[in-house]
Structures are given as structure tokens and as C-alpha cells.
Amino acid sequence: MNEVWLTQEAFDRLKAELEHRSGEFREEIKARITAAREEGDLKENGGYHAAREEQGKNEGRVRQLTKMLEAAQIGTPDIQEGIVSQGMVVTVNFPDLDDTETFLLGSREEAAHTSIDVYSPTSPMGAAVLNQEVGAEISYETPSGKTLRIVIVAAELYVP
After folding, report:
1. Which domains does the chain have, with CATH numbers?
2. Sign of the alpha-carbon torsion through 10, 73, 122, 137
3. What is the per-residue burial (b if ≥16 Cβ within 10 Å, else e) of 105-126?
4. pTM for this structure?
5. What tens digit of pLDDT does each residue of 123-157 get?
6. Most distant pair of Cα atoms in the chain: their distance
7. β-strands 99-105, 118-119: how paired?
């Protein structure tokens, strides 16, 4: 996993989620599996299968959070004025569509806790604008295969 820039608030929130999922929540799921197992016939035991599925999802999230927190950098990367980097609010214009969009270039983990759209630096548009200068005109390919042209209008440090 590439380095991930997180605010201190986001890091603390994710760390608390990891502690909950790898402790108390994991034990709750184990208890549900044990109780369902005691009911007998596991083939037709919906409670058992649901608890096992939830266990798998929880363990996947624990692995994801562990990797993310190990790679996390707290704060914002070194920022050069006029150059787009993670932790910046970026405004782009789509000249062919006569439309403008403003978003935070950062971790998707920030998305649930901000009112602004968040684009990952690994998303097609995020990768296209990363390290570009304000005023640059860039073309990038969308997941559907369409090529879009954008002009970077502004890039400012995100302040939560």
C-alpha cells in the first residue's frame, strides 16, 4: 500500500475502529458463531452462516486498517504553492462540458467526515492532477474509457 496522508483526527478515528474490530467486536462475532454452532446442523443454520460472513468481512477490514495505519503519514505532505498535492482542495474546470468541480485530493477515509467530495490520488482524475501546476490543462481517461479534458483552476490546503 502506498503512503496514505491522514489528518490526526482521521488517524485516531481509524485506530479506534481497528481496536474495536480486533477486540470487542471480534469476540462478539466469535460468541455468535459458537452459539449458532451449538444449535446443530450447520448446513441449514442461517445464523451460523451470517456470523461467519460477518467474521470474514470484519477480518478483511482489520487487515485493511492495519496496512493503512502502518503506511499512514499524519498531517499533509510538503506543499509547494501552485502545485497540486494530497491534502489540497482542488478546483478543476471541464472546458468541453462547461462545468467546474471542487474536491479534496486525499484518502477515501476522509470522505465520510467532510462535506466536500474526496478523490483518491490513485483515482483517474486524482492521478491526473497530482503534482500538476495550477493552470495546467490535462486530459485523462475515465474508467468507462472516455477521455476528459480539465484545467486546474485552484489548489489550496485543506483545513478541516
Report:
1. 4-74 (1.10.287.180), 88-157 (3.10.50.30)
2. positive
3. bbbebbeeeeeeebbbbebebb
4. 0.63
5. 999 999 999 999 999 999 999 999 999 999 999 98
6. 67
7. parallel
